[in-house]
Structure formats: structure tokens, C-alpha cells
Amino acid sequence: MNNYLKKSTLSWARLVQAFALTVTTLVISAPVQADETCQSPYMAKIVGQEDFVYVWTLGMQGVGDEQDKLVTVDVNPKSAKYGKVINSLSVGGRNEAHHSGFTDDRKYLWAGGLDTNKIFIFDVHTDPAKPKLYKVITDFVAKSGGVVGPHTTYALPGRMLITGLSNNKDHGGRTALVEYSNSGEHIVTHWNPTDSDLRGAVKTGKYADGYGYDVRVLPRRNAMISSSFTGWNNYMMDFGKMLADPEAMKHFGNTVVQWDLHARQPKKIFDVPGAPLEIRCAWDPNHNYCFTTTALTSKIWLIYEDKQGEWQAKDVADIGDPSKIPLPVDISIQSDDNMLWVNTFMDGKTRGFDISDPFNPKQVFEQKIGSQVNMVSSSWDGKRLYYTSSLLANWDKKDKDNEQYLKLFSWDGKKLTEQFSIDFVKEKLGRAHQMRFGAYSLYAAFQPNKP
Predict the structure, then answer these.
(1) pLDDT band for position 447 (50/70/90)?
(2) 33 pLDDT exceeds 70?
């Protein structure tokens, strides 16, 4: 019996060792994920090189067909069409095309119009090189109970979570989070907490404005974080006119809200003055924090869980010279949680901040991308950064400073080197706004035609 036990124990030990070796080999040999780092953790990820970038593009008066469109660019260096526009799908009219996001299975791309409140759903899996318009949601305002300005479209399991920017009563900043099924049916609307209706949330500072903008989740902490911007009255106004209007400048969001993710219950409202925009959360399972930046006060804020398990908000760094209002817009966190890229619209620059200590970000890099710059997307391996130019139709710069482009840069840890640039005005496409990555590898059933 003893000899049998010894042999069994030895066999199990060898089996465990073999299993461990196999797992280690698989992990080491697995290709690096190359997806965007700002996507939902519930979403299917690209493994390896992305093949396409889909650019949700605003139509421009006097440029091409003047319509909003989804533009597909080939970004695989091995392709003969690398750096070229390979497809353009117009959706009819100008809707103030702005943000977009995939469903959790990555088969469909949802893209919103901030002015018309339409949501365009594109089929990107049947032929990833040539997306098709699958469905248009035209009753978003009615179904949501009065939400205006569908902004972030964010994947939850089997659902899309949509942030609003405004409402149909006063076109101000009071708004909500709206849930839809992946098939495009309205499920429920969650209004943001205000002074008059805190909805059970704790107000930690001065504000409870009910404004909205972006949303991100950390499922492992049952946390959802939302930010705030401004309403239709402002984002559809000419930028210069708005800046000169003292009353208009009073109507910007000053809050970040922590929610119970599973219950969709607002828990805490934090004062984050100056329009906190994009939210980017850390990827490491032990890093329980997210970053946002404030457009009007030019600061980086850390939204973090403290040692007692309570969420807090802290101003941790300046972006450029805040007195000059460089207007920080999009941000992108690298997958190792060591670098945060911050774009500033007014000076057209991108800045790299070392965030290895999230409480003390340090700027380590700066480069001008164009006369204006808005969105930035970092690849998962940190080697590629994509940039686009447009903010809003009435906020973009004028005349020669109204550059509209998609640019790809390589990053070696020290410098950005341009790989290609596409002039969206010259190509008669319009105002390049948000980017999303696509790849054949996501869809095993699809086999691209080989030459």
C-alpha cells in the first residue's frame, strides 16, 4: 500500500508539473493582445495585429457628400493597402457624429449622433473590411424618457450602456445612463443624481449636478464610474461664442459619480470641477483606480479605492499651463498602467505622463500632432498611437487650422515617429473623430479573399 501511495503521489506531482509547464508555455508563446486599451473588459479582444481602424466621421459642408460616415482604414503593415482608406459608408445627413463602441461579442459597432439622437448600428463581422449599416435607432429620446445626446456606447454582457449629454426639457446638462439590449431594444434608464434627487447617493462635496459624459467599469470591484460635460445648448453652440457667454460657461459638469455596477445604484458624488471628460481605468487586477482629466481646469484626477474599500477622488497633476486653458480632451492609458497619454485640443499636442505612481503623475514626453488634436488610441502592446482631429463641428478650429486627419505614430518608449497620415478633407471624408480597431482574427468564420 505504501509503495502504491508513493507511486500515485509521484504520478500526481509529475502531472501537476507537466500541467504547469504547459500553461507557462502557452502564456509565453501566446501573441500579445493588440487591442485599444480604453475598451470594455467584457468585450472580445484583438490578439495580434489590428487590421483596420474604423473612424466615425462628421460630415462637413462643401466636402464630399457632406454626410456623417464610417470610414475604414487598412492599418496592417503587411497589407498592400496599408495606410489607405478602403471603405466609406455614409449614413445620410449630419448628426454630429461623435463616439462609438462595440457590443461585447464585437459583431456590431454602435455610433451616436449628438444632435439628431440617432444611433447607427454597423455590422462589422460579416465583412470586417466593409461594414454594413445594420440598424438605425431613431426613437432614443422617446424610449429613454427624454435623454438627449447619446455619447459613450459601452459593452456590458449582452447589453449596451449609453451615456447621455442632455435632455429634451431644457437641453441643459441634466441627463442619464441608458441600457439597451445588443439587438437594439431599450431596457432601462438610470437618471444621474442631483441635489433634488440624490437617488440614494452620498454627496461628498458641493455639487450634484446630474450631468453626464463618459462611463467605465471595474467588474472585480463592482464599480462603475461616470463623468460629466455639458448639455446640447452648449455643445451645439459656436465655440468662440460660448467662451464669450458668461451664462453658458456656468453650465458645465463638475462631478464624477461612483456607482454600484450590479445594482446600477449611484453611491458617491465627487466634486471634480471643470468638466471631467474621458475615464480610463487601470488594467492590473490589483490596481483599483481610474483617471480622468478636466477640460476647463487642465488637471489629471485620480478616482481610486482606498485601503478601507471606499472610493475617493483626488487632483494629482496639472496638464500644461492651466491658466492658458490648453483644453485637455481624450486620454489613453497603456496596458501596463505606466503611461497615460493626454491630448490638448488648443495647442494640438499629445503629452505622455508616467503614472507608475498614480498619485504623482509626471510628464515625460510632449509632441505637437497638428494644429488641433482630439482623440488618441493606444495599442495594447504600447507600440502604436493613433490620433484624430475633430472635437465638435462648431468647436473645431477655422480656416487653415481646421486640419482633419487620422495619423499613426510608432512609439519606442522615447519618441513618436509618424507612420502615415490621411488628410480627411483632401479625401473628401469630413471631420475625423473617434477610432475603433478591427481585425479578421475576431471572426473565425470569416476568411478574407486571398490574392
Answers:
(1) low
(2) no
Q: Which amino acid is at 124?
A: V
Range of the domain at 149: 2-442
Q: Is residue 447 part of a domain?
A: no
What is the Cα–Cα distance from 421 to 439, expressed in whole angstroms? 20
CA–CA gap between residue 446 and residue 99 (Å, rounded) = 27
Nearest alpha carbon to residue 290 among 275, 302, 306, 308: 302
In the predicted structure, residue 185 carries a pLDDT above the cut 50: yes
Of 198, 212, 202, 204, residue with least CA distance to 164: 212
In the numeric block, which cell numbers belong to residue 227?
463623468
* Lowest-confidence pick of 11-25, 67-81, 232-246: 11-25
Helix H or strand E segment including 167: strand 166-167
Please report, for the domain that includes residue 166, its CATH number.
2.130.10.10
How many other C-beta atoms can be found within 10 angstroms of the C-beta atom of residue 394?
A: 15
**How many domains is the chain built from?**
1
Calpha distance 5→3 (Å, rounded): 5
Q: Span 199-204, mean pLDDT?
A: 98
Looking at the domain assignment, is residue 451 inside a domain?
Answer: no
* Single-letter amino acid, residue 429: L
Share of the chain above pLDDT 70, in %: 91
Cell of residue 75, nine digits: 492599418
Beta bridge partners of 23: none
Establish if 163 belongs to a structural domain: yes
Which residues, other chains included, contact 420 with Cβ-Cβ below 8 Å and sequence gap of 6+?
82, 83, 407, 408
Measured CA to CA, the distance from residue 205 to residue 208 in angstroms comes to: 8
Distance (Å, whole) CA 382 – CA 50:
13
Q: Please, what is the average pLDDT of the chain?
A: 92
In a domain, 417, yes or no: yes
Task: Report the largest interatomic distance among the alpha carbons of the chain, rounded to a whole angstrom.
Answer: 90
